[in-house]
Amino acid sequence: MKEQLAKIRAEALAAFDAAADSAALDALRVQYLGKKGELTAVLKMMGGLSAEERPVMGQLANEVRAALEQAIEATAKKLEAAALEQQLKDEALDVTIPGTPAVMGHKHPMYIALDEIKDIFIGMGFTVLDGPEIELAELNFDRLNAEEGHPSRDWSDTFYFDEDSRVMLRSQTSPMQVRAMDTMDLPIRIVAPGRVYRKDEVDATHSPMFHQVEGMVIDKGVTMADLKGTLNTVVEQLYGEGTKTRFRPHHFPFTEPSCEMDVQCHKCGGEGCPTCKGEGWIELLGAGMIHPKVLKMAGIDTEVYSGWAFGIGLERTAMRRFKIADLRLIFENDIRFLEQF
Ligand code: PHE
């Protein structure tokens, strides 16, 4: 029995020493010290010993058990330390490795153009308004003097949400004129950029969704001269000093008189070229003096107040500003195209 204990001790200590990790060490603990372990098996044979031998063997067995337990504890500590060392090595962060460069984006060309326009108007004391794209037909049409039967109200031109044609995707930013009149104190100077929707097929110059910037001034004694002066100033700031404009008579239901403003072609300087389709001029916006009916519907005294308004197509402005030939490029979000600006 003595030899058996000595053998277990020697074998166990060698095995502990060779354990590769704490799981292996755990298995060894069970193998030697567990209920069905080798040392336990020897202890179970103690019953067969004589009364003199029993305490001697008992003491020896206890010594072996203590030695094994101690060795297990020491080995466990050693393995833990080694595991930590390995983990630190594996997870080491090399701060000298060059990083992945972040790709910086930039503003979309249309928003560059919009920000320029906003800056110019803010500089002249205008407030920038934001309004809903889902609009009441009452504001998009009725309050703008486009009554039942007006061609722009047709189902083939307009996106309605209901059979009664009451709620729609706004076809213009002009309902923002009405919203401003209904909510703001006079005098009013506002610009209101945003998306508008019309049932158009997509081509190089058309899209069922595009952007406009609405502008409006209402004050005492405002005339067509103020409209022309302001818009000329804006055009010179956008396209350079000396840029010529031309105002042609036009019709909008909510302005009287109404006009369209053309800008002299930046390519040919007015002589006529493919960019301006031989005209020498490029149409930029619609404008006019706000119709007295529209002012009256908003409860504004037309004996005291008058106003003007304009609506400018933002894509067209950006296309002119950056010499973009096809409207679709503005919405396709092709990085190769956008990177150029
Ligand atoms: N809303 C008009 C359009 O979409 C433009 C416009 C705005 C005309 C303001 C006059 C005054 O064509």
What does this structure look like?
The chain is of the alpha+beta class and 341 residues long. Helices cover 42% and strands 20% of the residues. The protein has a 7-stranded mixed β-sheet, sandwiched between helices. A hairpin with a 2-residue loop joins β6 (245-252) and β7 (255-264). The radius of gyration is 43 Å and the shape is rod-shaped. The mean pLDDT is 91. It binds phenylalanine.
Compact overview of the structure:
Helices cover 42% and strands 20% of the residues. It is an alpha+beta fold and 341 residues long.
Q: What tags apply to this protein structure?
A:
two-stranded antiparallel sheet, seven-stranded mixed β-sheet, binds phenylalanine, 341 residues, alpha+beta, 42% helix, rod-shaped, 9 strands
